[in-house]
Design a protein that fits this description.
about 290 residues, mainly alpha, 12 helices, globular
Length: about 290
């Protein structure tokens, strides 16, 4: 009976600390984005674009904070210290990632104008997807066990930087495998293009998460794991588009459905996004 009560109290403690970190993450978002009036955009302005972006942030935050809860227990006190340190670190890294993504990956957009002035839902979806992909990267960086001489926090930072570079490269490669300029179409309000691209970003983030979450043996092995996963993921992107055309959307061309008609087919784009994310899961299970 005492064992059950002790386990219950420990679980409640972990959940309470997680909720506290989640609240801190909410405050951190406001500190990193002081000009954003969250309540106004969500409640009064009914801004669906911002809702997608903001919910994506919270999903990324959930993944980041959740990562510090995984792994074997090292005693309640030590666990709480670790949760506090890495939870706060994950919050900072996630918010820094959003800024980096805005300035580099989504540099062709005026995000303030697109999301807050034009209420461009496609831009909001991509912003949210970037946050989710980054949350997966942070999650993998923190859950990877065993550390080299650099120390755990330095390892996490190196993983995070590497993840940001890979997400940037992903945006370029995805643009190459399509016959249209994704940034141009998203800026013009094409939600379908945004959904398909978001699926690709999340899929690569998932593969990075898998590569980073293994036990740390050496930097060489870690980089080899990441490189292999990412290369396989990049190679699978055009394959996934082909499979979407031939199997998931028989008789129809994906590009025609997404960009070559007056009303872009968002449903077809959802199928495309599923192909990317589902494919990333199959790759992980097969590795």
């Amino acid at each position: 009976m005492l064992t059950i009560l002790d386990g219950l109290l420990t679980t409640i403690t972990y959940i309470a600390v997680s909720f506290l970190l989640f609240f801190i993450g909410k405050i951190a978002y406001q500190l990193f984005h002081p000009r954003v009036k969250v309540a106004y955009e969500l409640v009064e302005n009914d801004n669906l674009a911002f809702a997608f972006a903001h919910v994506g942030y919270f999903i990324g935050l959930l993944l980041s904070i959740g990562s510090v809860m995984l792994g074997e227990s090292d005693g309640l006190v030590n666990d709480l210290i670790g949760i506090g340190i890495y939870g706060l670190l994950s919050i900072v890294l996630l918010n820094l990632s959003l800024i980096i993504n805005d300035k580099i990956i989504l540099s062709t957009f005026d995000l303030k104008k697109e999301i807050f002035d034009d209420k461009n839902v496609g831009t909001g979806i991509v912003e949210g997807a970037n946050a989710i992909a980054t949350g997966l990267v942070v999650m993998g960086a923190i859950t990877g066990e065993g550390y080299g001489e650099a120390g755990p926090i330095v390892n996490v930072l190196i993983y995070w930087i590497l993840g940001q570079i890979i997400l940037f490269v992903t945006s370029k490669i995805y643009n190459l495998i399509t016959s249209y300029d994704i940034h141009d179409h998203i800026e013009r309000g094409n939600i379908a293009v945004a959904v398909g691209y978001s699926g690709a970003i999340i899929a690569i983030g998932n593969l990075i998460n898998n590569a980073l979450s293994h036990d740390f043996d050496s930097w060489m092995i870690t980089f080899q794991d990441i490189g292999f996963n990412v290369i396989v993921g990049f190679a699978f992107l055009p394959i996934a588009r082909f499979l979407t055309d031939t199997i998931l959307l028989p008789g129809q061309k994906l590009t025609d459905e997404i960009v070559n008609q007056e009303d872009p087919n968002v449903g077809a784009a959802i199928v495309e996004a599923f192909a990317y994310v589902g494919g990333s899961m199959l790759i992980i299970w097969a590795l």
